Amino acid sequence: MARTALLGLPRMGPERELKFALESHWAGRLGADELLETARGLRAASWQRAQAAGIDVIPSGDFSLYDHVLDTAWALGAIPARYGALDRDSLADYFVLARGDAERRPLEMTKWFDTNYHYLVPELDADQQFELRAEHWTATLAEAAALGIETRPVVLGPLSFLLLSKGVDDPLALLPRLVPVYVELLRALAAAGATEVQLDEPCLAVDRTSAELDLYATAFAQLKAAGLPIALTTYFAGLDVGAMLEHVAALEPAELHLDLVRAPGQLTPALQALSATGTRLSLGVLDGRNVWAADLDAALERIDAALAALGSERVTIAPSCSLLHLPYEAARETGIDEEVRGWLAFAAERIAELRTLADVLVAEPVQTDVLLDASRDRQRSRRESARTNDRAVRDRVGLLRSTDYARDTPADERRTVQHERVALPELPTTTIGSYPQTPEIRDARRRLRDGTLPYDEYEQVMRKRIAEVVAFEQELGIDVLVHGEPERNDMVEYFGQQLAGFAFSANGWVQSYGSRCVKPPILYGDVSRPEPMTVGWWRYAQSLAERPVKGMLTGPVTILQWSFVRDDQPRQETCTQIALAIQDEVADLEAAGCFAIQVDEAALREGLPLQRHLQDDYNRWAVDCFRLTVAPARPETQVHTHMCYSEFNDVMEHIVRLDADVISIEASRSDMEVLDAFTSSQPYPNDIGPGVYDIHSPRVPSVEEIERLLELAEARVGRERLWVNPDCGLKTRRWEDVRPALQNMVAAAQRRRAVVGVSA
Question: So what's the architecture of 3-289+312-325 in CATH?
Answer without folding.
Answer: Alpha-Beta Barrel (3.20)
